[in-house]
Specification:
This protein is of the alpha+beta class. The protein contains four helices and eleven strands; from the N terminus they run βαβββαβββααββββ.
C-alpha cells in the first residue's frame, strides 16, 4: 500500500504536444509523443498544485520517469478533423507566495480561440479557485498587478502562468489533437 506522502508530488513538469493523423486515436498518441509523455500510463487527477512542489524543466522531468510507469497528471486535450478549425488545450497554474500552501492547476480546452486568450483564461480560472480557498476576494479586473505581472488576492501575492498549445486542422481533414499537461515526476 501507498503511504500518504508517496502520492504527493514533490516535482511537476509542464508539457504540450500536437499530433496529426488520419485516425483520431493515433493523433492523440502523436500528441502525447510530441509532449514526451506517451510511454507512460497516465492517470488523470484533479487540480491541486502541492505545497512546496518544485517546478522542473520538461526534459529533466520526463527523464525522471520510466517507460510503463503509472504517472499522475492534470491533462487538457482537444481534437478535431474539421478543416481549418483551430483547436487548443491549456493548463493554468496559480501558486501562492507562501509555498507551504497548495495552489491550483486548471485545465481548459476550446475551439477557435487564440493561444493568448486561452492561456489568460486558464490562469484566471486557477487564480479564482485559489482565491476562494484562501478566503480572498477576487475580482479579475482589479486583482492583476500589471507592473509586477502577478495577482494580488486580498494582500496575498499569487504567481500564475500557463502552458498552452493551439493548432489548426489541415485542409485534408486529418485529425488534429492537442494536449497540455502538468505531470508529476518526483
Amino acid at each position: 500500500m501507498f503511504q500518504g506522502d508517496q502520492l504527493v508530488a514533490k516535482g511537476i513538469f509542464f508539457t504540450t504536444g500536437v499530433g496529426i493523423h488520419k485516425e483520431k486515436l493515433a493523433s492523440f498518441e502523436m500528441a502525447l509523443r510530441d509532449g514526451k509523455i506517451a510511454q507512460h500510463n497516465l492517470v488523470r487527477v484533479s487540480s491541486i498544485f502541492p505545497p512546496n512542489c518544485e517546478i522542473i524543466e520538461r526534459d529533466e522531468g520526463a527523464g525522471m520517469l520510466r517507460p510503463g510507469q503509472v504517472v499522475f497528471c492534470v491533462l487538457s486535450e482537444a481534437s478535431s478533423n474539421e478543416p481549418s478549425r483551430r483547436v487548443g488545450a491549456t493548463i493554468g497554474v496559480a501558486v501562492p507566495a507562501n509555498r507551504d500552501h497548495y495552489g491550483y492547476i486548471s485545465e481548459h480546452h476550446a475551439y477557435g480561440q487564440s493561444e493568448k486568450l486561452m492561456g489568460d483564461y486558464a490562469e484566471d480560472l486557477a487564480a479564482q479557485m485559489l482565491a476562494t480557498v484562501l478566503g480572498a476576494d477576487f475580482n479579475p479586473e482589479e486583482a492583476w498587478d500589471e507592473r509586477r505581472e502577478q495577482w494580488k488576492l486580498s494582500g496575498l501575492v499569487v504567481d500564475t502562468f500557463n502552458h498552452t498549445i493551439v493548432a489548426e486542422v489541415p485542409e485534408g481533414g486529418e485529425w488534429v489533437t492537442v494536449v497540455a499537461a502538468a505531470v508529476s515526476c518526483a
